[in-house]
Amino acid sequence: MRTYDVDVIVIGAGPAGLGAAIKARENGARKVLVLERDFEPGGILNQCIHNGFGLQYFSEELTGPEYAGRFIRKASRAGVEIQTDTMVLEVKPSRQVITSSKRYGLQEFKAKSVVLAMGCRERTRDAIQIYGTRPAGIFTAGTAQRFTNIEGFLPGGKVVVLGSGDIGLIMARRMKLEGCEVQGVFELLPYTNGLSRNVVQCLNDFSIPLYLQKTITQVHGRDRLEGVTALKVDKKQNLLPGTEEFVQCDTLLLSVGLIPENELSRKTGVEIAPLTGGPRVNQDRMANIPGIFACGNVVQVHDLADDVTVESEIAGIAAARFQNGDIPKKEQKIEAGKGLRYVVPQKVDLSCSRETPLIFFMRAELPRREVKIIISQERQEKLAYPLPFIKPGEIIKITVPPEKIKELQPGLNIQVEVRGGG
Amino acid sequence: MVEKKLICVICPVGCEIKASFEGEDLKEIEGFRCAQGEEYAREEFTSPSRILTATVQVNNSRVAQLPVRSNQPLPREKLEEAMLELARVSLEIPIKEGQVIIKDILGTGSDMVASRNLEK
């Protein structure tokens, strides 16, 4: 096995990995290597052919491949190396990275810092326990998206979608445009978690029905899917027996949630926060192991690629600076209080001077209007950010500029909560 | 007088906007809270249009489909017809991002362009 010395190793060449790698190069890291298991960089953006990317970061509306293309070209100009068709087998806490690839065999990289940017995976049929046979025709929405948009295969002809998040809505439209019959989108909750724009442009435009408070409990068919059983649920998501309905279809697309992909991180000993499913990180996006950073959907499932880029740039800068010993040391906790499911980062060292803003990402527990996000220490309100509305489906991003960070006292824990509203 | 409703999608507030029509003519519009919302609603009520994104076949590439987009919004009722035009396309690589794949599709004035590079 050959051994190579590298300044920064980035695992994954999606938006998070590319964003981090570019910033690491721009901030003084000499050799930056991105490892990617697919045959080309870009990650899932390559299959997200729809538009809507880049509105925040570039102030223009791009498709997924266009958004990826900008970062791929920028990485190349910045002198970032990308090794594709390469699987990372292990990341040691001492920052040795072992990989396997057809072309190079086993390799070992000794890195000064490592950035975890593996993204997330889709929940499958097993995760939501749909009863029945095991016929062909049941796909996660993302798998069907890859077949359709990259490989050139349609997954079926008569489609049911379970889950009304953005991926489910976008795939419903995609299947319809490719000539499939789309029977409907089923959603367990009384509301959709997708953007209203996607409800209008993906479903209403094509008269695709949206069934709220209805889920799928059983699949039928031996070799190929022949249909599903749909059932109503009450407000507490209990199934309502007697409301069963058979829906004929040969394809079921599941868009039932995403999980940060942390198999590698866990093996390394990276501490995982239960509510995000990702590494517990500080303001530099550094995990509990010095020199190991994480960003993007591996840390928390973001709504927008633009936010992934913002987070990955923080991690990339920090990964480059880590070599100079410029790291937070006395970290305090950042706690999610009333009305919030979680806050990222989960810890911060306020004595560590930064000319960059402190960016908090958080998710609301319930939809509310006219609220304030309060940042406090020892029950004393320090900063307040009014928001016209919050909802669980849309990540809240609070940017605290350096001059405001000074109002927070180093050495004390920080609480973030939602106040007011209805 | 016919009344139509829509939910504004410009921002997440989701204003409910109502419009009344006399035949084809938009007479009155209400419920918006900003100028962008009004502009969106007027267009959505009278001539809704969308950016079309899709894929076309490529023959000699590991990526078997080329993603394409319209460089201008198309009238909503033309989307499905435009898909049939795209289904007839078959390309060879290399292809450059921005390369025109179908010029002035269906006489709409909008070009379908490649949304990525595909190299050998």
Tell me, what's the shape of chain A?
globular
CATH superfamily of the largest domain in chain A: FAD/NAD(P)-binding domain
> Largest chain interface and its two residue counts?
A-B, 31 and 27 residues
What oligomeric arrangement do these chains adopt?
heterodimer
Ends of chain B: how far apart?
Answer: 59 Å
Tell me the β content of chain A.
Answer: 25-35%
List low-confidence stretches of chain A: none
Describe the fold and architecture.
The complex is a heterodimer of chains A (422) and B (120). Chain A is of the alpha/beta class. Chain A has three domains: 1-122 and 258-327, FAD/NAD(P)-binding domain (3-Layer(bba) Sandwich), CATH 3.50.50.60; 124-256, FAD/NAD(P)-binding domain; 330-422, Immunoglobulin-like (Sandwich), CATH 2.60.40. Chain A contains nine helices and 28 strands. In chain A, the strands form seven sheets. In chain A, strands 1, 2, 5, 6, 7, 8 and 20 form a seven-stranded mixed β-sheet that branches. In chain A, a hairpin with an 8-residue loop joins strand 3 and strand 4 (62-63). In chain A, helix 5 (166-177) packs parallel to helix 6. Chain B is elongated. Chain B is an alpha+beta fold. In chain B, strand 2 and strand 3 form a beta hairpin. Chain B has helices at 35-46, 79-87; strands spanning 2-7, 16-22, 25-30, 49-50, 53-58, 65-70, 74-75, 90-91, 100-102, 112-114. The longest helix of chain B has 12 residues, at 35-46. Classes of the chains: A alpha/beta (422), B alpha+beta (120). The A-B interface holds A 39-40, 46, 49-51, 61, 63-66, 68-69, 148-152, 177-179, 195-197, 200-201, 205, 388-389, 391, 394 and B 6-7, 9, 12-14, 48, 50-51, 53-55, 57, 62-65, 67, 69, 76, 79-80, 83, 97, 115-117.
